[in-house]
Amino acid sequence: MKELPAERQFLYVITDERFLNVFNIYEAVERAILGGAKVVQYRAKRKTAKEMLEEALLVREATKHHNALFIVNDRLDLAIAADADGVHLGQDDLPVKYAKEIAGEDFIVGLSTHNLNQVKEANRKKEFIDYIGFGPVFPTTTKENPDPVTGVENLCRAVEVSELPVVAIGGIFKENVKEVAKCKPSGIAVVRAAFEKGDPYENVRELSLLLRA
User: Which EC class heads this enzyme's classification (predicted)?
Assistant: First the structure.
């Protein structure tokens, strides 16, 4: 049975097509895992399905080699084709019920939520969902049309209300990760903090040290 990491506040890194491509994605993901990332989500919006699959297969190779979970954003078809461990769906994507039915009980299904009403709705569908993402906690530039910022207070409330593990997401960097950690989410997701510049190993390692401190 595929499951989320047992450790509290695991680091969940998400790839970004602005910084990563078929030539560097394997190494970047590998470095992030070595730095402490436990879950890797492949996310791309502007590439063809063929390009995305090519990159996703490289991420699959890196995560399998280093025993990290591999999640594909939005696209259940690509997740299945790349032998991913799961898929992360948005509010307007394929309903979680159908994703679970198609991919099977052993397949991880995550769902994005952006307010407490959506968290409560996820609770009602928890038989089809393994975790929720909640955010954006802070302003983010990784999405063209981001949802309204939730803030830390609502993140803390979401963790209290949710009957599922919560992964905090959105504008999280080393400067604010401790503030997020105070809400005690199961996981903390980062994009730019891992991959925008510098060595992903050092970036993720620094975040891990801040969380452990």
Answer: transferase
